[in-house]
Specification:
Blueprint: H1 2-24, E1 29-38, H2 42-50, E2 69-74, E3 81-86, E4 93-102, E5 106-115, E6 119-130, E7 135-145, H3 148-156, H4 159-178
Antiparallel strand pairs: 1-7, 2-3, 3-4, 4-5, 5-6, 6-7
Helix pairs in contact: 1-3
Length: 180
């Protein structure tokens, strides 16, 4: 019996070592980017992003927890606007603050996840006019550091696919909302 326990322990130690080695090969930062061409000028899209109160209409995470608690602070919209949430395991908890809002070309958000895993990232929305400015190439990017826990998760989960599908859904929601 002791021999079996020793073998199991050795296998676990080797498995953990392999996971750690694989994790150490992951980059020290990450970036997820998605873009959509929206048939609307940037001036129509910009207010839906710079005002956190508007996110309930398009954010891919807003409906994942019907009992999610939301709080708003700081400015009503634009630079200094704050949004915090606390919800179930599907949305966790965290806080966002707009640190730059250059209308109608760019919004930068400081994004702090508290649960289920702590993370401190930056989200950006970039608006590039297309054709005669009646269309907008809208890009949503999130980037940040990849600490050890993040690297370990990346051994098992592709962050670009996991987060990217949510960005695609959010951009599709925004597109639907402004192209009505």
């Amino acid at each position: 019996m002791l021999h079996v326990v020793a073998i199991i322990a050795a296998v676990l130690v080797i498995a953990i070592a392999i996971i750690l080695v694989l994790a150490m090969t992951k980059p020290d930062s990450f970036s997820v980017r998605r873009t959509a061409l929206v048939r609307a000028p940037a001036e129509r899209i910009f207010p839906l992003i710079e005002n956190f109160h508007q996110w309930t209409a398009w954010s891919p995470w807003e409906n994942r927890d019907p009992t999610m608690k939301r709080s708003y602070g700081g400015a009503q919209s634009g630079r200094g606007a704050i949004y915090a949430w606390e919800g179930n395991k599907n949305v966790g908890s965290g806080r966002m603050e707009i640190i730059d809002a250059t209308s109608p070309s760019k919004i930068v958000i400081k994004l702090d996840f508290l649960k289920p895993f702590e993370g401190h990232n930056t989200a950006e929305f970039n608006f590039a006019p297309e054709r005669d400015a009646s269309m907008t190439n809208l890009t949503w990017v999130m980037h940040g550091p990849a600490p050890l826990m993040s690297k370990i998760m990346q051994v098992f989960v592709n962050f670009d696919k996991m987060i990217g599908k949510d960005f695609e859904a959010g951009l599709a929601n925004l597109k639907r909302l402004v192209e009505k």
